[in-house]
Design brief:
By secondary structure, the chain is an alpha/beta fold. The protein folds into three domains: 46 residues, no CATH class; 217 residues, Rossmann fold (3-Layer(aba) Sandwich), CATH 3.40.50.150; 99 residues, Rossmann fold. It is 34% helix and 21% strand. The protein is built from 14 helices and 17 strands. The strands form three sheets. It has a seven-stranded mixed β-sheet with strand order 6-5-4-7-8-11-10, with helices on both faces. A six-stranded mixed β-sheet has the order 14-13-12-15-16-17. Strand 7, helix 6 and strand 8 form a beta-alpha-beta unit. Helix 2 packs across helix 3 and helix 5 packs parallel to helix 6. The radius of gyration is 21 Å and the shape is globular. It starts with 13 loop residues before the first strand and ends in an 11-residue tail after the last strand. Bound molecules: zinc ion (ZN). The site of zinc ion (ZN) has 8 residues, from loops.
Length: 418
């Protein structure tokens, strides 16, 4: 379904800034028997709101189609795990959280983050819509309500569990179609002196590092701090601090309180200043971006074909959703990339959406010893490079696809994407 109004300010001044074509759903991996069935494809277009500056998709796939059986389990990446631990320690110390302070998390996934908070001694409650993943969290002892977080569920949660001293919304806001309902829910549940911590990939990083592969149907919006400030202010909430974190290609941890409760830090001003300098709310900025994206569609297949023509064999590492945007946009199928390996057992034995590349266990790198392995989720490139020491010792080389394809050298050398 195409939308014609901005999700933050309801303006209809939406200008198209990038068209990635019609693609399959990036997380809809297929079982072998499903390969013969018709696969749904949807347009993947990005628009910029001429009034508030929100960068967003103008196509919306029903959320039940997207999230019912979601196979991203956050516990599978050690980077995510380390971040969760840091986050719990950092926030508990900073806000003096203890045994009386309820920590709630929207889209709590398999409970990886809340588990760390429980280690710090706070009561926790997760809200997670994917039944299979919520079940995994409950199995680990993390109380989890199976639901989407919105105004309706927030009111129910408030009645049953009281208000939250800390409310976490990590990498979920981009998935939310009804942003107003989501923020109203936070406003309702947040204690008087409570803090909501919203973690979003930063639009500035997407722009600077050409992270267009983070664009897929599940991510409806791509946030700057300025647009988030506009959204939150509509409901009496304000951003009083910002931390920059390296996860997901460079993200912002936005600290939010009821208006007037916390003094606003200089870091908020600094982020807004950077965004303003990059001119992220101007269409011509994004026209330049679209031109750089189009170059990847030339350079990546060229890079791969060049290697093949020299007689080198190839494989991919990391069957992430972002890999599927990249492969779909660049027209890369099993003829160029015969298989992709992934640590997630949930994905092994399946096929990528759209181009149907088989997903295998990382052991396949040693069994087949392809000459070159392309690390598709560039955000974990360093971690993968270290892990695959044996593959490299036997002569395997590793490369990353964007901003332009290149080989990775020694891990100590700079040049790793953050
Ligand atoms: Zn707008």
């Amino acid at each position: 379904m195409q939308i014609h109004q901005c999700r933050v300010c309801q303006s209809n001044k939406l200008e198209r800034i990038l068209d990635l074509g019609r693609t399959a759903l990036a997380n809809r991996f297929l079982k072998p028997e499903a390969l013969k069935e018709p696969e749904p494809f949807f347009p993947l277009r990005v628009v910029l709101c001429g009034d508030c500056g929100l960068v967003q998709l103008d196509e919306e796939v029903p959320r039940e189609t997207l999230f019912k059986e979601y196979i991203y389990a956050s516990g599978t990446s050690s980077l995510v795990w380390a971040h969760a631990r840091w986050l719990a320690q950092h926030l508990c110390r900073r806000y003096g959280l203890g045994a009386q302070d309820l920590v709630m998390e929207a889209a709590s996934n398999d409970g990886t983050v809340l588990k760390e908070f429980r280690w710090q001694g706070t009561p926790v409650l997760g809200i997670e819509p994917a039944e299979n993943i919520a079940a995994a969290a409950i199995e680990r002892g993390i109380p989890t309500v199976v639901d989407f977080f919105d105004e309706r569920s927030a009111r129910q949660l408030g009645e049953e569990y009281g208000s939250a001293r800390l409310f976490l919304a990590r990498h979920v806001l981009a998935h939310v179609s009804d942003l107003h309902g989501f923020v109203r829910g936070i406003k309702h549940l947040l204690a008087e002196d409570g803090v909501a911590v919203i973690e979003v990939p930063h639009l500035a990083e997407l722009f600077l590092h050409l992270e267009f592969d983070t664009i897929y149907h599940e991510h409806l919006c791509y946030f700057s701090a300025a647009v988030l400030r506009t959204l939150l202010a509509k409901f009496g909430l304000s951003i009083f601090d910002v931390d920059r974190v390296a996860i997901h290609g460079g993200s912002l941890l936005i600290h939010v309180g009821h208006e007037g409760v916390f003094p606003i830090s200089a870091k908020v001003v600094e982020v807004l200043f950077q965004e303003n300098n990059l001119r992220l709310s101007h269409p011509e900025t994004w026209r330049g971006f679209a031109g750089r994206v189009a170059q990847v569609r030339e350079s990546l297949p060229d890079f791969m074909d060049g290697l093949r023509n020299e007689g080198h064999s190839l494989a991919g590492y990391g069957a992430a959703a972002k890999a599927n945007t990249l492969l779909a946009y660049c027209g890369i199928g099993p003829d160029r990339l015969p298989f992709i390996v992934d640590r997630s057992k949930l994905k092994q034995g399946l096929f990528t959406p759209g181009h149907h590349i088989p997903v295998r266990s990382p052991d396949a790198l040693l069994d087949e010893q392809p000459d070159v392995t392309l690390i598709l989720p560039w955000n974990i490139a360093e971690e993968v490079f270290e892990q695959q020491a044996e593959y490299r010792r036997r002569g395997g080389r590793m490369a990353v696809p964007i901003p332009s394809p290149r080989f990775l050298g020694s891990a100590r050398r700079s040049g790793f994407p953050a």
